[in-house]
Specification:
Blueprint (H helix, E strand, L loop, with lengths): L15 H22 E2 L2 E2 L4 H14 L12 H14 L1 H4 L17 H7 L2 H9 L19 H14 L16 H11 L1 H4 L14 H6 L2 H10 L15 H13 L38 E2 L1 H9 L4 E5 L3 H6 L6 E2 L9 H4 L6 E5 L5 H12 L5 E4 L2 H7 L7 H7 L1
Parallel strand pairs: 3-7, 4-5, 4-6, 6-7
Antiparallel strand pairs: 1-2
Length: about 400
């Protein structure tokens, strides 16, 4: 019996060889229900009512095979395009050209799309990249998108470029990791960073990336490069053994981390938005009339000044880590109702993101267009804030304080 699951209820035989990892991800939800019921290899049902509840849970939660074929109709393409413009264009550009903010890469690269589709694209959008401006958009991570939304989005990305997905296989690439570290330092650090943290290119030592990217995906990227991006092909510069060594080095950095749904905290209510509501206003020295140094914000908090701090990143980022007292106000949120949440008086409203300015600038621009005068953007962004050792908390920490 095929019950609808997030409007996904079809499969394409031509994509059957690449469906299984993504379907395995979706099926894991069913397995979690099974584990809750299973005890010592048998199902124990204590009452008929419990049996009925369990059966209903399994039926509702059981996903059908995801349709990964690149056959979206005009209505679906328009729906996905609107989703992309709302959530992705700020950093990746309106036409997917990339590099609009925080070196977000082009999403038009055929070599990337053909090898990342579907699993790596799905995982990246779902869970993001740790310690980067790319945060997770899955509802399980605290973001706004369902599995069906994300699948529609990756199908749209692939169909826009008319790619033919390449099955690279799961086999390990054999190489010398120690030698690979030397070759990496000579060829890769200027863009990807000494420790793979990313400078002007993606963070390839990111644990989620390494948990999803196969050895052959990594090798394919090094051999063929990424057209439309600064990532060149190294096939004429490095021997095959040297490329294998780089792959082995990158793989040696993997910790075996797997994405885990967060314990999501409830967002603050409007009456909780103002920090120290009885305090005095802080004094900020703004660069270019907009950007406030992180240390001045810390000083305001330590002095019990009155202010509002907005976290303009995706909701998942706020759940994971944020500045104490910060209110989640994602850049993609409906801004037409923002005046309902924020007082338009002399209270300072300070926004931040990880870009370090793109998302927070967009929110502050809107506030200023509505007549909010005391507004600013934290100049360094939260990644630098964390690097400076300034105070942070997680969403669940805030919930536990109540």
């Amino acid at each position: 019996m095929c019950m609808p699951h997030n409007k996904i209820c079809h499969s394409s035989s031509s994509f059957s060889s690449i469906n299984s990892p993504l379907l395995h991800h979706l099926d894991s939800k069913v397995k979690r229900h099974n584990l809750m019921l299973r005890q010592k290899g048998t199902f124990k049902v204590r009452t008929p009512l419990l049996l009925l509840i369990c059966l209903l849970v399994l039926i509702v939660s059981t996903p059908c095979k995801a349709d990964l074929s690149l056959t979206l109709d005009d209505k679906e393409m328009a729906q996905a395009d609107a989703m992309y413009q709302q959530y992705c264009s700020l950093c990746h550009g309106k036409d997917r050209e990339g590099y609009k903010a925080d070196h977000a890469p082009s999403l038009k690269s055929e070599s990337m799309l053909s090898t990342a589709y579907p699993q790596l694209l799905f995982d990246t959008i779902s869970w993001g990249r740790v310690n980067s401006a790319m945060d997770g958009y899955s509802k399980e991570a605290g973001g706004p998108l369902s599995d069906a939304d994300i699948i529609l989005l990756i199908r749209w990305l692939a169909q826009k470029e008319r790619i033919s997905p390449i099955e690279l296989g799961e086999a390990s690439v054999q190489g010398n990791a120690l030698n690979g570290k030397v070759i990496y330092s000579e060829n890769c650090v200027s863009c990807h960073g000494v420790n793979g943290e990313g400078v002007t290119a993606p963070a390839i030592a990111d644990q989620l990336f390494l948990s999803s990217a196969t050895d052959n995906y990594l090798k394919h990227a090094i051999v063929y490069g990424r057209e439309g991006t600064p990532m060149q092909s190294f096939s004429n510069k490095l021997h095959d053994e040297e490329i294998n060594d780089i792959v082995a080095y990158l793989r040696s950095q993997a910790s075996g981390w797997r994405p885990t749904p967060l314990e999501l905290a409830k967002w603050p209510e409007p009456e909780e938005f103002v920090i120290n509501p009885k305090g005095s206003n802080p004094t900020f020295n703004l660069r270019d009339g907009r950007y406030v140094p992180a240390k001045e914000v810390v000083q305001a908090l330590e002095s019990n000044n009155k202010l509002i701090i907005l976290d303009t990143r995706p909701g998942s980022a706020w759940q994971r880590i944020h500045i104490p007292g910060a209110v989640p106000m994602p850049y993609y949120r409906d801004k037409s109702r923002i005046a309902e949440y924020l007082p338009n008086d002399d209270t300072w409203i300070v926004a931040y993101c990880a870009c370090p300015h793109a998302a927070s600038d967009s929110v502050v621009n809107h506030l200023r267009s509505l007549g909010y005068k005391n507004t600013a953007v934290i100049d360094e962004g939260i990644l630098k804030w964390i690097e400076m050792g300034l105070p942070v908390e997680a969403g669940k920490d805030k919930a536990n304080k109540k």
